[in-house]
């Protein structure tokens, strides 16, 4: 006997269900709003994050009928919408990174154990990293951060931004090259 | 450690956990952003929308029944006069089925605290008058929608029949023509502060409020929308009184008006601000008319008033309008 509503599987099923039953879309929100929030909080800070996540879902909801059901995973779609919204705040984003250049490393909020876990190196080069991010062209930064902070694959980034995978690779390489240059290219464990 | 790993670590450092309020955004999905509910104190901001000049008194007046503030009748030019009905409440959400009215939809959501005021803009635009209507005024409410005519608290006209019903009720009571309506909620307030690029306030003592997660040092601080909202809503700060809270609201609104005034000289900035305002409030005023009003009113003098009132003869917890004083006041606004 089925007393529970059927558990829906793939995101694409939720989207298609929402065509006739709009409420089904709320499940997508429950799945991904926290993830999107964390991502945008890294780029723009918590003040903007909540609103941008809400906006992302509003836009997605309005466009749910044009979703390509061939894609089971809706994350790239949502990240794509969010990226466009973030791009409206590019100046603010750059200012946020630049602020890190000046801010002293705030070690008071973390225990020594945390610092060891996070790697003292990352903290030591924070200013350089932030400076490089602030200086990156928006398109390269989008790709780099979707991979580093959004945990998308190359294919997913391509889908999110509507660009070929080759372009994702070249933008990523360019972005990483600049970051490494900012770090002084001295890192012995560097890849590629 | 490679560069991507370093970047990820930086990301982890910058990351914030989603707050519980994120759930509000879920709600937006089905209610739509244009159907937000109106915050009484945010009514001050409405005024930023309708006119810079009225912003301060609107909050000043908000929610207080102070008979001493009753306006001194003065001659008012009639031509080109506009009266704007301003409504605010601190109910967050819950606009539901229009057929049942917002009142039912909000039942159980929590205390509602409506501000109702009539902002009078005379033709010469040299003065502006904000007349607040105590929300617990017992008045005659005409038939609107499915509600029969009755004598009830004036905010029930709004709660049951929306702004249209409140407008009809007030037009009947005051004999004024209410040309426009503006409704605002506290999301609107937040957005407006952000649109202004934040506000600067000077705090006598530091704030560390758990409930709103607001932490501010003593002295000058620049607040964004969220912080400003937290600040005006603080309850356990200072002497904790409602009057103290109203004062903080005034401080913030005064700071906002200062920002708006600086925008008045820059048409592009002003237009941008008004666009944001337009998104945050519900009004039948067009962008153009708001722009026009804002520029026209930049040099206006402000008067604030309350409808003259007295305790209701049958229920001391209610208010009755004092006649003929009330009628005299409205006569000056025609």
UniProtKB/TrEMBL annotation, chain A:
<keyword id="KW-0731">Sigma factor</keyword>
<dbReference type="InterPro" id="IPR013249">
    <property type="entry name" value="RNA_pol_sigma70_r4_t2"/>
</dbReference>
<dbReference type="Pfam" id="PF08281">
    <property type="entry name" value="Sigma70_r4_2"/>
</dbReference>
<feature type="domain" description="RNA polymerase sigma-70 region 2">
    <location>
        <begin position="28"/>
        <end position="94"/>
    </location>
</feature>
<dbReference type="Pfam" id="PF04542">
    <property type="entry name" value="Sigma70_r2"/>
</dbReference>
<protein>
    <submittedName>
        <fullName>RNA polymerase subunit sigma-70</fullName>
    </submittedName>
</protein>
<comment type="similarity">
    <text>Belongs to the sigma-70 factor family. ECF subfamily.</text>
</comment>
<dbReference type="GO" id="GO:0003677">
    <property type="term" value="F:DNA binding"/>
</dbReference>
<dbReference type="InterPro" id="IPR013325">
    <property type="entry name" value="RNA_pol_sigma_r2"/>
</dbReference>
<dbReference type="GO" id="GO:0006352">
    <property type="term" value="P:DNA-templated transcription initiation"/>
</dbReference>
<dbReference type="InterPro" id="IPR007627">
    <property type="entry name" value="RNA_pol_sigma70_r2"/>
</dbReference>
<dbReference type="InterPro" id="IPR036388">
    <property type="entry name" value="WH-like_DNA-bd_sf"/>
</dbReference>
<keyword id="KW-0804">Transcription</keyword>
<feature type="domain" description="RNA polymerase sigma factor 70 region 4 type 2">
    <location>
        <begin position="128"/>
        <end position="178"/>
    </location>
</feature>
<keyword id="KW-0805">Transcription regulation</keyword>
<dbReference type="InterPro" id="IPR014284">
    <property type="entry name" value="RNA_pol_sigma-70_dom"/>
</dbReference>
<dbReference type="InterPro" id="IPR013324">
    <property type="entry name" value="RNA_pol_sigma_r3/r4-like"/>
</dbReference>
<dbReference type="GO" id="GO:0016987">
    <property type="term" value="F:sigma factor activity"/>
</dbReference>
<dbReference type="InterPro" id="IPR039425">
    <property type="entry name" value="RNA_pol_sigma-70-like"/>
</dbReference>
TrEMBL record, chain B:
<keyword id="KW-0812">Transmembrane</keyword>
<keyword id="KW-1133">Transmembrane helix</keyword>
<dbReference type="Pfam" id="PF03816">
    <property type="entry name" value="LytR_cpsA_psr"/>
</dbReference>
<keyword id="KW-0472">Membrane</keyword>
<dbReference type="InterPro" id="IPR050922">
    <property type="entry name" value="LytR/CpsA/Psr_CW_biosynth"/>
</dbReference>
<protein>
    <submittedName>
        <fullName>LytR family transcriptional regulator</fullName>
    </submittedName>
</protein>
<dbReference type="InterPro" id="IPR004474">
    <property type="entry name" value="LytR_CpsA_psr"/>
</dbReference>
<comment type="similarity">
    <text>Belongs to the LytR/CpsA/Psr (LCP) family.</text>
</comment>
<feature type="domain" description="Cell envelope-related transcriptional attenuator">
    <location>
        <begin position="112"/>
        <end position="261"/>
    </location>
</feature>
<feature type="transmembrane region" description="Helical">
    <location>
        <begin position="40"/>
        <end position="60"/>
    </location>
</feature>
